[in-house]
Amino acid sequence: MSNNILIIAEGRADGLKKVSFELVNVAQPLAAALGGAVQGAVVGSNVGAWANTLAQTGVTQVYVADDAGLQNFAPESYTTALAALIHAAQPAVVLFGATGWGKEVSARVAAQLDWGLATDCTAAQIVNGALVLTRPVYAGKAIAQVQAKSFPIMASIRPNIAPPAETNKTAAPIQAVTITLKEPRAQVVETVAQQKSKVDLGEANVVVAGGRGVKGPEGFAPLNELADTLNAAIGASRAAVDAGWIDYTHQVGQTGKTVAPKLYIAAGISGAIQHLAGMSSSKVIVAINKDPDAPIFKVADYGIVGDLFDVVPALNAAIKKEQGN
Ligand SMILES: Cc1cc2nc3c(=O)[nH]c(=O)nc-3n(C[C@H](O)[C@H](O)[C@H](O)COP(=O)(O)OP(=O)(O)OC[C@H]3O[C@@H](n4cnc5c(N)ncnc54)[C@H](O)[C@@H]3O)c2cc1C
């Protein structure tokens, strides 16, 4: 085992996901404290371009498992491939993104290698030579500090907790790792592309979210306009999703997505614990609600008591004016 930190990059058709670059920056201080280096791993089919990009982020080595058998996502095959990469790299710490993909494969890889795994962490540091991870628990009601008793260890890290590393460094060497895949027991038969919003909710710097207070699907119109102005993604409470006003992919919370943007604007959302579980680690929370006693105001950095149909357009106009539009 080395003192290195291995980050597992994650991509999609248009390239590596932002969380991959964030993991590099999460890993750098850990590697410095352990006297090791940050290395990257890329897995998939035809992922040479991903490896080249990752090689320019300041990592010292990239391991690649590139195999036609990984073209469609099959958890068993990806677990085999990732375990082989980790075996080749021999790191002290492996970091995944706490995305849907990362959560699924990290649990499987940890089980296969019999390593410890701390999931959905919002901070990682080395204290007295040990890895200490911060994890929101009980739907965000409490924050746990988890200390790994020994190395090697794995963790999944929430997107948006660190700035993304830039891709302007001298390219690190890339090492291909040979893998032997078995026929997976389940195969993807068809992939149906979802209608995507302009900005990915999980990666957005700004989220504008609406709840039951928007009163109907058309109530999201002023929120969409504000989101356009701020280059934001649209989020929603479960009440709005369950009412059929917006697609489930926008749901934020315990049974939806966990987001940690720089700015979260909650309009017409009461602030139920299950909603807070998905957004309370946002850097700045702005709540717009006509009920001054709404629980959302307890977690908000800025609260606006008023009708969202007055406040959101006024906010949009003021921001546009500030932007010079
Ligand atoms: C197991 C479980 C899992 C759950 N998972 C989730 C989850 O992932 N995400 C989630 O969001 N919820 C989840 N819930 C549901 C959660 O408990 C709440 O019911 C839900 O979050 C409420 O949504 P809301 O805030 O939009 O609606 P409400 O609680 O009805 O709040 C609406 C708010 O809008 C305000 N309002 C109304 N009109 C206006 C107006 N014109 N202008 C300004 N404000 C206005 C009201 O004052 C009120 O505060 C879960 C529940 C359970 C039991």
Bound molecules: flavin-adenine dinucleotide
Radius of gyration: 21 Å
Tally the helices: what do you get? Answer: 9
CATH topology of the largest domain: Rossmann fold
The CATH level-2 architecture of the largest domain is identified as: 3-Layer(aba) Sandwich
Please state the overall shape, judged from the principal axes of the Cα atoms.
globular
Runs with pLDDT <50, length 5+?
A: none
Helix/strand class:
alpha/beta
The proportion of residues forming helix, as a percent range, comes to: 25-40%
CATH homologous superfamily caption of the largest domain: HUPs
β content, as a range? 25-35%
Strand element count: 17
Order of helices and strands: EEEHEHEHEHEEEEEEEHEHEHEHEH
* Domains, number: 2
Report the span from N to C terminus.
56 Å
**Quaternary status:** single chain
Strand order of the largest sheet: 7-11-6-1-4-5-12
Return the average pLDDT rounded to an integer: 95
How are the elements arranged and paired?
Layout (H helix, E strand, L loop, with lengths): L4 E4 L2 E2 L2 E2 L1 H17 L3 E7 L3 H8 L6 E5 L8 H15 L3 E5 L2 H14 L2 E6 L1 E5 L2 E8 L4 E6 L5 E5 L16 E3 L29 E5 L10 H10 L2 E4 L1 H5 L20 E5 L5 H4 L7 E6 L6 H4 L2 E4 L2 H16 L2
Parallel strand pairs: 1-4, 1-6, 4-5, 5-12, 6-11, 7-11, 13-14, 13-15, 15-16, 16-17
Antiparallel strand pairs: 2-3, 8-9, 9-10
Helix pairs in contact: 3-4, 5-9
The structure holds flavin-adenine dinucleotide.
The site of flavin-adenine dinucleotide (FAD) has 28 residues, from helix 6, helix 7, strand 16 and helix 9.
